[in-house]
Amino acid sequence: MKILLTGGAGFIGSHTAVELVNNGYSPIILDDFRNSNALIIKNIEKIIGKKVGFYSVDIGNKIKLREIIKKENPIGIIHFAADKSVNESVLNPLKYYKNNISNLVSLLELVSEFNINSFVFSSSCTVYGNPIKIPVKETNETQPAFSPYGYTKKVGERILTDFYATREKSSLTLLRYFNPIGAHPSGLIGELPIGVPSNLLPFITQTAIGKRKKLTIYGNDYETPDGTCIRDYIHVVDLANAHVLSLKFSLEKKNYIKTYNVGMGKGSSVLEVINSFENVNKVAINYDFGARRIGDIPKIFADIDLIKDEMNWFPKFNLENSVEHAWNWEKKLMDFKYIS
Ligand code: UD1
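A: This is the predicted complex of the input protein with uridine-diphosphate-N-acetylglucosamine.
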């Protein structure tokens, strides 16, 4: 059972590839390493103990993509390939519209040509904007997007929904990720931020190891118990398993379009994450408080009843596991001599 994973060498894609193999599927990874490295493919193979299907390709290359789909004949697609930096999207919106939107449309033309009936899409809690009601349910109204990145997720959901509404015997699953963190417990795969990380966990681990001098907490005057922002941090392996279940369901049942939140269903503040990292790993983080970051919302976390009820998905890892695994990965990166 071959499954195409666009962006499959990325943070969430690589963990999903491993979990797919653990569940009897054969992932075919497509990636051009713009946000990853060949090391990840090598290490996926170490974890699974065999070769993994892999093509080095930009998913904007429709001709090559067609050849691959024709040759491999996948029964499903998990579409991770997208750019994901909020800041960069403000500075270079066309990059985001090209990669996250045009390339999605051209992929769907191939889905139509080759009749691939199961599709899982990486969406984001960013579609909820600054929510009025917390925890957010899938039925909450989405808000206008703050950044071009956020807009591409909203439009991506819409394009896919419109497209799959026209198709019979097909199923579409939109997974709205909250904040993915952690790494594989083996320490062999994890997040590989290119340049200075903008996300919290990689910044913490890079500060802990000495790659960064200091972590700045963006704002401690929010209306939250400790004044720092609250997010829903989910272990990447749990998130990967949500993809496997989505795929399993979509292969069993057809004719549906579903949206699920994937988070812990619980909020943690920036300070709680830092404290947890320090306590679990016995490493001190050099941090200070700075100004709020433009576009940050004070508080969000997920209602995860739907995915629990309908897919029997439950997070197995907690925040402590996540910070331990993320630290383990950062230390291993030294052994791999990886320099970003
Ligand atoms: C952001 C995006 C989200 C996207 C995700 C990708 C928005 C508003 N958010 O989430 O859509 O899916 O990245 O992973 O579009 N923080 C610091 N110091 C730092 C870095 C972060 O204090 O150096 C704080 C932030 O202010 C925030 C929390 O840590 O409160 C998490 O930040 P981050 O990891 O960047 O994720 P989000 O902004 O929640």
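The pocket of uridine-diphosphate-N-acetylglucosamine is lined by residues 84, 86, 124, 126, 147, 150, 179, 198-200, 203, 215-218, 229, 231, 270, 293, 295-296 (CB under 6 Å). The radius of gyration is 19 Å.
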